[in-house]
């Protein structure tokens, strides 16, 4: 938490976040990095586990508002990540093996799931197909950890809606 833009004190915010996490309302995903590359983003990401609650709190109450709004991609990412995390937890897996990856050049992998010595990076996108920039990110991740990896991408055509 950054005190510059938050009027509450750090300990108060941390306490409320722990309540939200214990209630399974939010999950914090830590960044994935190896000691090889220090240029990675180290700020964790916060995901709501219920997109219906997110839409209600932000007053995006209809599918049409969401479809035309600026946050459609963010809501989709939140939905996809929350469903993956729920499936992972229901399978009895440890959420400490789930991260995200972003470097100083803003190259990003939405989720990196580690099973043993295998990494499973996932790029989630509502409209954009996987571009060459994402492939470079995957190569960097593979090289820095020396592990094999598999790409999973969820791509939804603009005319089909999941909301």
Report on this model:
- Residues 132-137 and 140-163 have low confidence and may be disordered.
- The longest helix is centred in the middle third of the chain and has 19 residues, at 72-90.
- With 163 residues, the protein is of the alpha/beta class.
- It is built from 5 helices and 7 strands.
In short:
With 163 residues, the chain is an alpha/beta fold. 37% of the residues lie in helices and 23% in strands. It has 5 helices and 7 strands; from the N terminus they run αββαααβββαββ.
Which structural traits does this protein have?
163 residues, seven-stranded mixed beta sheet, 5 helices, 7 strands, 37% helix
- Tell me the radius of gyration: 17 Å
- Give the fraction of residues assigned to helices: 25-40%
Low-confidence stretches: 132-137, 140-163
User: What is the average of the pLDDT values?
Assistant: 76
Number of strands: 7
- Tell me about the largest β-sheet: 7 strands, mixed
List the total number of helices.
5
Q: State the secondary-structure class.
A: alpha/beta
Calculate the terminal CA-CA distance, rounded to whole Å: 30 Å
Question: Could you state the order of secondary-structure elements as H and E?
Answer: HEEHHHEEEHEE
Residue share in β-strands: 15-25%
Q: Based on CA inertia axes, which overall geometry fits?
A: globular
């Amino acid at each position: 938490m950054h005190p510059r833009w938050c009027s509450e004190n750090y300990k108060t915010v941390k306490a409320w976040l722990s309540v939200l996490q214990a209630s399974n309302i939010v999950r914090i995903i830590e960044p994935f990095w190896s000691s090889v590359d220090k240029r990675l983003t180290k700020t964790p990401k916060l995901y709501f586990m219920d997109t219906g609650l997110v839409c209600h709190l932000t007053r995006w109450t209809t599918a049409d508002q969401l479809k035309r709004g600026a946050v459609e991609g963010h809501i989709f990412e939140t939905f996809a990540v929350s469903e993956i995390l729920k499936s992972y937890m229901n399978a009895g897996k440890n959420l400490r093996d789930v991260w995200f990856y972003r470097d100083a050049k803003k190259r990003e992998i939405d989720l990196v799931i580690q099973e043993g010595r295998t990494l499973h990076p996932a790029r989630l996108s509502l409209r954009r197909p996987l571009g060459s920039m994402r492939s470079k990110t995957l190569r960097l991740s593979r090289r820095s950890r020396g592990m094999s990896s598999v790409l999973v991408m969820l791509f939804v055509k603009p005319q089909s809606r999941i909301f």
